Amino acid sequence: TGLGLAITRKLIELHGGSVNCYSAGKSLGTTFTVQLPINRKVNIIKHKKINVIKKINTKKLRKITYKPKKRLIGKKVALIEDLVDSQIIYKFYLEAESANLDIFGSAKPALKKLVKNPYSYDIIISDIGLPDLSGYEFIKKVRELQSNSNTDKDPTKSLSLSAYARDIDREKALKAGFNDHLVKPVRAEQLIFCILDLINKPN
Question: pTM for the complete prediction?
Answer without folding.
Answer: 0.70
